[in-house]
Amino acid sequence: MWQGGAPPLGYGLAQQRLVEEPAEAKTVRNIFERFLLQPSVTALIQELSEQGVKTKAWNTKAGLLRGGRTFDKNVLYKLLNNRMYLGELFYDDAWHASSHKPLIEQALWDEVHELMASRARRTGVLNRKSPEWHFPLKGLVFGEDGRSMTPWFSSKQRGRQLGYYIPQKEISVGAGASGLPRLSAYHLHAQVMEHLYENFRDPSQWLAALPRSLTDHPTFDQALITERLRETARVSDLFSLPTKAQLIRLLVERVVVGPNDFLVRISAKGVFELICDLIQAHTTDWVSQIPDQTPRK
Q1: Do 96 and 139 belong to one domain?
Q2: Are 276 and 186 contained in the same domain?
Q3: In which band, very low, low, confident or very high, does the pLDDT at 296 lie, cut at 50, 70 and 90?
Q4: Which of 93, 110, 174, 288 lies 20 to 30 A from 3 at CA?
Q5: Same domain, 274 and 140
Q6: Boundary (domain end) residue, out of 100, 123, 146
Q7: What is the phi-psi region of residue 185: left when phi exceeds 0, alpha when psi lies from -120 to 50, beta otherwise?
Q8: How high is the mean pLDDT of the chain?
Q9: Rounded to the nearest 5°, which phi and psi values hold at 57?
Q10: How many CB atoms lie within 10 A of CB 263?
């Protein structure tokens, strides 16, 4: 018995049971078959768009039309992973054999999913845990459209994989859909770090934005803080990748990417924490210089 809302593309409902819709079922089988023949998901989506293929359309109980939209990558993969097309239904947290007619044969399903797995391995989809310092700006890089940019590895070339931040629309629709560039992770991290180093070398803007509660504190020594920040910039070539990643996560609030440039927003909270750490380090250094007055036996 069908307990959900609208049935998936390829099926209708009769007495709360899934029944085949011949025209839609033909479309579903065609999508599975064309997936094996097209060189990429983007090419298949383009083909479906040119053919006018839409997602399942239905009317709600209130009479409102839902669905019937153009396929994108998310919708396509959802269809290709729907085991209802094998004659199964999901309940009790598992898939079970059902009485409705399967639209896809097991052999075709297996062939499609084998190809999907091989493409995922080749295209660098992040289906494995990656050290945080590989993409320290994960969750902080956004396009001008407000959508986040996704960490991504290229296919292997000469035994190496290159990291990128790519617009989400490029993933869901296809290359070029967002109008925004794919950013080399290496170059973006380098440019963001250089922006931070510029402020380390001349921290006047950062210091001017600090709260009075900090700058009026007896332990606040602006000259010393300035020198420590400049020293950080001077020794930056010695920083490891994890150390650079830690600085980025502390000091960067957001990176906003446009077609030809990007904006780095500095975290006021991060600067405050960094200055407090430098003050603490100064206090520790000062305490360490006090002669030991402990009576000796």
Answers
A1: no
A2: yes
A3: very low
A4: 110
A5: yes
A6: 123
A7: alpha
A8: 82
A9: -110, 140
A10: 11
163-167 and 57-59: which strand pairing? Answer: unpaired
d(CA 257, CA 166): 10
Residue 27 belongs to a domain with what CATH number?
Answer: 3.90.1750.20
Assess whether pLDDT exceeds 50 at residue 208.
yes
Q: Is the pLDDT of residue 282 over 60?
A: no
Lowest mean pLDDT among 36-50, 172-186, 268-282: 172-186
What pLDDT digit, counting tens, does each position of 125-134 carry?
Answer: 444 445 567 8
3-state secondary structure of 294: coil
69 close to 55: Cβ distance less than 8 angstroms: yes
Helix pair angle (106-123, 22-37), 10° resolution: 40
C-beta of residue 25 within 8 angstroms of C-beta of residue 45 = no
Check whether residue 130 and residue 119 sit in a common domain.
no
Range of the domain at 256: 126-289
Query: What's the rounded mean pLDDT across residues 66-90?
Result: 90
pLDDT level of residue 54 (50, 70, 90 thresholds): very high
User: For residue 297, is it within any domain?
Assistant: no
Counting the structural domains of the chain, the total is 2
Whether this prediction's pTM lies above 0.85 is answered by no
Distance CA 120, CA 257 (A): 26
Show which of 123, 145, 178 is a domain's final residue: 123
Q: Hey, how many other C-beta atoms are within 10 angstroms of the C-beta on 82?
A: 17
Most confident of 71-75, 117-121, 214-218: 71-75
296 domain residue, yes or no: no
